[in-house]
Amino acid sequence: MKSPSSPGFVQRLQRVEQLIVRRELQKAAQLLNELNKQERDDPRLYWLGSRLAEAAGNPKGMLEAAKKAQQLAPEWAPAALRLAAIYAHNKDFGSAIEHVATAVKLATDQGLLNAELLKDAAHVCMDVRQPAQALEWLTMAQELAPSDQGIRLGMARASLHKGDPAAALTIYNELLLAHPGSLQLILERVLCHLQLNRLADAAADCNLLLAHEPENPDYLYYAARARGETPASQPTRLIQDLFDNYAPNFDKHLVQGLNYRLPKDVAEQILDWYPNKDADILDLGCGTGLLGVCLGPMKGVLVGVDLSLGMLEQAAQHRIYDKFHHVNALDALQATPDAQYDIITALDMLIYVGDLQPVIPNARRILNPKGRFIFSSETAPAGTDSFVLNLKTNRYQHAPDYVRQLLKDSGFAHVDFTERVIRHEGGKPVQGFLVVAQ
Fold first, then answer.
1. 192 and 255 within one domain
2. Has residue 44 got a pLDDT over 90?
3. Predicted local distance difference test score (pLDDT) of residue 250
4. 253 and 401 share a domain?
5. For residue 380, what is the DSSP state?
6. Which residues are CB-contacts of 219 (< 8 A; sequence separation ≥ 6)?
7. 49 assigned to some structural domain
8. DSSP secondary-structure letter at 352?
9. How far, CA to CA in Å, does 69 sit from each of 50, 74, 151?
10. What is the pTM of this model?
11. Which of 49, 180, 314, 342 is deepest in the core (most CB within 10 A)?
């Protein structure tokens, strides 16, 4: 990489980076513009420009600047690594894996491989669900920086996600000896205990957590699991974190990767009922707005509800929904006045809610007298009385008879119950059912 190496120029580059870290973005932009006039083709300027665009919430500028940096310096490992991280953030996993591998190879070939680059590369691998590769690079990083406990923490997380909770537990025990009061480390150790079915150990750790925060919903959720109970629903934060990180390219992954057809099929049914498109619809767990896209612009009101702000931002780009509520679907149901909607949908949303007692009666209450509640769920194993939490997928499954009884008790007189494949995962169909209750 050919670029000015005068001490003054390098110091000013470092100054830009410091300003970005301190979020003095206007000053950083001004200095970056000055440096760009001095040396327009220095790739470090575009690398920093990408960092600045990220801090300013400009994803398009972030990607364009990173591409420019790599174009100017294709042999510069940090440029390839920066692009990899952005592709990972955008859920373009193929491009991310390609660029992160390029970055590590370039640094290796040039004799510039160091622990920090390997840590960053491993972070990208975790983002693209490649924990085995992340663990390999973190192991290399540990050899270069054996006292770096951040590397050890990364190794624990990679081991856990790779399906080796025993190895992860060993590292968490080691880290907790050095940091015995770390609630985050204790919480992550709980996950190891649960995967190893060491419920007594998980419960003991949950007690430590609850001693600090007795009402923390995450701690209460894992404490219930440690007692062998099935929690009524998942904590809000877990769902938010999952889908906020999953929002970019979610539609493509869901429809093409998982063969997800529910929004299309349900939209066609709604349009058969309401050919004039004059239905008022509440879309619970609307995600990126796939149902709205399949419905097209409506004459009636279309309202979306989702816990993930990232998902709602994606849904808003379609310009089809009239309104969005960034709230828990259960709270939305409880807060809505009676007889407001012709249709309520909950497609692939109840897999994050176990107890449907707060859901079905409230749905009946806020529907118009002839309104319909349309929802899907995964089918629980035979012998399940009500609902169960699938510990492999961390999703709820419901017993059909439990659902039928709740619908009857809530006043739904007509129920169409269709067994079907909900989506595909790992190339295998996920069995469930679609319900239309009126």
1. no
2. yes
3. 46
4. yes
5. P
6. 187, 206, 209, 210, 213
7. yes
8. G
9. 9, 8, 28
10. 0.74
11. 49
